[in-house]
Structure formats: structure tokens, C-alpha cells
Amino acid sequence: VQLQASGGGLVQAGDSLRLSCAASGLTFNNYWLGWFRQAPGKEREFVAARRWSGGTTSYADSADSVKGRFTISRDSAKNTVYLQMNSLTPEDTAVYYCAASRPYSGGYDTTRAYDYWGQGTQVTVSS
Known about the structure:
By secondary structure, this protein is mostly beta strands. The chain is built from no helices and eleven strands. The strands form two sheets. Strands 2, 4, 5, 6, 9, 10 and 11 form a seven-stranded mixed β-sheet that branches. Strands 1-3-8-7 form a four-stranded antiparallel β-sheet, with no helix packed on it.
């Protein structure tokens, strides 16, 4: 399984970015693809996830919630999942990782659920 994340960059507060995660080698059914981020000195945190088939999604529900600003989507023809990020703030600055999970008995908002990880793409938001 290979996951290739791309689309990061340096933007200003209020701007938008779209991250892409191209997946290959995923042959099991009912897997989930997720996005996590890790800021310097902080733990990796959940951002959003999507079940590949069926369209069920999940978003982080934290104090600096991305819900309402970020949207996870997929292009099945390209085996790619996207993270559209709008109204970015400096607090969104982090390395963003995509990950893939086989069916998991718990929630998909934890790193424990994921078996495969991409290399990360840097997002920097200036004020």
C-alpha cells in the first residue's frame, strides 16, 4: 500500500488549499482514508476521515475545529482523496498526513485505527 500526499504550501490567513492523497495497493473492502496533522511540539491529531465506499465522513470536533471549514472528498477514478481547506488560520499550520485503515472496531479519529501512512505535506499559514 502506498499513499502519496501533496498540495501543501505557504499561504496567508483566510486562503484556501486543497490537499491530495493518491492511494495505490488498497485491495481490502470497507477501508477508511483519513487526514491527520502534526504541528511542531504537538501530537498528531485527527482532522477528517472518509469511508472509501458509501461516503460516510467524520471530522474533528475539537476547540479549533475544522468542521465547517475543511471538506474531505474522493475521486474514485483516480483513487485519490482530497482535503479542501478553507478560511485557513495560522493554527492550521502543520504537516498533514493521509492514512488508510482496514476495518476497525473503534472510531476512525485515532491514529490507532490506521495501518498505512503517507509521507506528509507541509501547510504553513502566515498571519
